[in-house]
Amino acid sequence: MRKILLVLAGFLAAPGVAAAQTTVSHGHSLFGALKYGADFKHFDYVRPDAPKGGSMTRHAIGSFDSLNPFILKGQPASGLGFVFETLTTRSADESATVYGLLAETIETPADSSWAAFTLRAEARFHDGTPVTAEDVVFSFDIQKAKGTPFFAKYYEDVVKVEALDRRRVRFAFSGGVNRELPNIVGEINVMSKAYWSSRDFEKTTLEPPLGSGPYRVKAVDAGRSIVYERVPDYWGRGLAVNRGRHNIDTIKIDYYRDDTVALEAFKAHQIDFRGESSAKNWATAYDFPAAQAGLVRRAEIKTENPSGMQAFVFNTRRAKFADPRVRSALAYAFDFEWSNQTLFYGSYARTRSYFQNSELASVGRPEGLERALLEPWRGKIAPEVFEREYAPPKTDGSGNLREALRAALALLREAGWTIKDRRLVGPGGEAMEFEVLLAQPSFERVVNPMILNLEKLGIAARVRTVDTAQYRNRLDDFDFDMVVGSFGMSLTPGNELRDFFGQAAARTRGSRNLAGIADPAVDDLIDKVIRAPDRESQVAAAKALDRVLLWGHYVIPHFNTPAARLAYWAKFDRPPTTPKYGLALDAWWVDPAMEDALKRGESQIKK
C-alpha cells in the first residue's frame, strides 16, 4: 500500500457543525494511497495524444422507448451515460479510487461522517450554463426520491445534502463509518435543475436530455437506434482524467431482436465492435472471409475484477421454492461439466462464490474474524456455513446424472415431496412445475438440457423467452419463477449489496433482489461489509456474507471466465497497456490509415 497523499489539510466550518480536521484532495481512495499525484497529466493506460475522429457502431438487444435512464418507467436507451457527467471518475488501474471530474477537490474528515466537493469553475452543461452546487443537490434529491429503487438503497446513508455556496456541496452521512460513501456520492449523474424545472422527471421522454458529458444525443430512431456525437467544446476535454479518452466522434447503437441477428450484422460490417458472450460463437462463428483476410480482429482481455455471480435465480417468494432443501435439490439437474464440454468448448470454470476470482470469495472453513461474525447467527443460518466450503453439485461430464438425481430425490423427500404417477408432488398435493423466464433465445440451449433432467425428477419445467420490455416489467414486478440473473461485484463491495440481497429490497418493486432474500443474518453481514473499518475486516465480512448466501441456495451458480472476448473491425487501435480493473474502451480510437486499409480490403473481398 502506498503512502496516503495528503494534498491539503484544513478545516470545514459548516453551519451548526463544529470544525474538525479534514483532508482535501484531488482524489479519494478507500483503503490505500492515490497512484496519481495532484499534478498528474493523464492515466497510464491511455494514449494522451490519441487522434480524434471517426465513428463506431455498436449494438444492443431489444428496444427502447425513453431517454430518461433514472426512473423505473420505460426502457431507457443504451449509452446515456455518455451524456451525463459525475462529480468523480474512477481510475481503472486502482481499486476503489476516484479522482475529481466535475469536482476539483474532495474534502473528508477522519471519521468519514461527511464529504464536501468543490466544483470546477469551468464545468458547463451543453447549453453553456455552469454546473452549480444547486444542480448537485437537485440531482441527488430527485433521483433518491423519484428514481429507480436502486437509488434509495444506494444512498440510504446520506441524510443531508446542502449547497454551501455556488461551487461547494456537502453530503452528511449516518450510521457510522462507511469510507465508500464519498466514492458513492461522487457517482451521482448531475442534471440541470433549470432544465428539469419545466419537465416531469417521472415521465418517459424521447427528448434528448441536457447533460455535461463528453457526448450528446445527435439522433434518435425510437426503438431502433440512437446516435451520440462528441461535444467539440466539451468543458472537460483538457482535464488530466480525460486526456486520451473520448476519442471517437460518433457512436451509434443499433438495436436488434436477438444476438444471432446482431452477429450476422457484425459479419456484414453493419456493426464495428461487439463483445462476445457465447463460447460457441467465439469458437466457431468468426471464420468468415473478412476475418480470414485479417480485416476483423479478436482479443481476449483479462482483468482483475471479481467475476461476480451469474446463475439461475429462484424466486423464493413462490411457495414451491421457499424450502432451501428444494432449491438445493434442483441444483443437481444443472450438469455444468457436460454443458462445458458439449456446449461451451471447455471455455468456462464453475462459479463457486458471489465474489468469484477475488480475495473476497469464501474458501475452506471460516476462521478468526470471519467465524466471529458468523457465530451470533448459529442456529439461524445453515449449519454447513460453519462446517465446510460450499461447492455446487459436480458430475463426470458424461451426461449420466443417475447419482446426482438420487441425491436430489433424497433432499426432496426430506422436504416432503414425493413421486406420484411420475410427477413430483408437494406436501399439499401440488405438482412441482415452473417456468424459466429468458430475454435471449440463445440461452435456451443451456436451459433445455436442465429441463430434460428435471423431467426425470417428475418436474414439469418449461422455458419462456420474451422481449426485453416484457422481461424487464416482469422482473420489476417479481413475476417469475426462475430467471437467469447476474450480480456484478467490485473489489470493495458496499451499498449495492442492500439492493441485491437486503430484506427491504425484497419488498421493493424494481429492486435487484430477484431471489426475494429476507434474512436478518444477511442484512447484518451486509452492514458489516459496508461499515468495515479496514480492509481486513471488509474481506472477513464479505467472506461470511458469501457463505450465508451460498448455503441459502438462492441460486444455481453458472460459470465464469476472467477474460472479456472482443471482436472488432480493424480500424480501431488501442493503448498497449490494459488497466487491471477495466477494458478502458473509451481510450480506443479510429486510426485513419487503418480505416483506409480496411476499406481497400473490403473492396477486394467484394470483387
What does this structure look like?
The protein has 607 residues and is an alpha+beta fold. The protein folds into three domains: 8-40 and 63-196, D-Maltodextrin-Binding Protein, domain 2, CATH 3.40.190.10; 215-303 and 564-606, D-Maltodextrin-Binding Protein, domain 2; 311-560, Dipeptide-binding Protein, domain 3. Helix content is 26%, strand content 21%. It is built from 19 helices and 27 strands. The protein has a six-stranded antiparallel β-sheet. α10 packs across α18 and α17 (520-530) runs antiparallel to α18 (535-551). It is globular. The protein starts with 7 loop residues before the first strand and ends with a helix. The relative contact order is 0.15. Mean pLDDT is 94; it is low at 1-19.
Question: Could you write a compact summary of the structure shown?
Answer:
This protein is α+β, with helices and mostly antiparallel strands and 607 residues long.
Tags for this entry?
D-Maltodextrin-Binding Protein, domain 2, five-stranded mixed beta sheet, six-stranded antiparallel beta sheet, 607 residues, 27 strands, disordered N terminus, Dipeptide-binding Protein, domain 3, alpha+beta, globular
Ends apart, CA distance between termini: 58 Å
Report the CATH superfamily of the largest domain: Dipeptide-binding Protein, Domain 3
CATH architecture of the largest domain: Roll
Q: How does the helix and strand content classify structurally?
A: alpha+beta
CATH topology of the largest domain: Dipeptide-binding Protein, domain 3
Helical fraction equals: 25-40%
Overall tally of structural domains: 3
CATH class of the largest domain: Alpha Beta
- The order of strands across the largest sheet is 1-2-7-8-10-9
Enumerate the spans where pLDDT stays under 50 for 5 or more consecutive residues: 1-19
Query: How much is the average pLDDT?
Result: 94
Strand content: 15-25%
Number of helices: 19
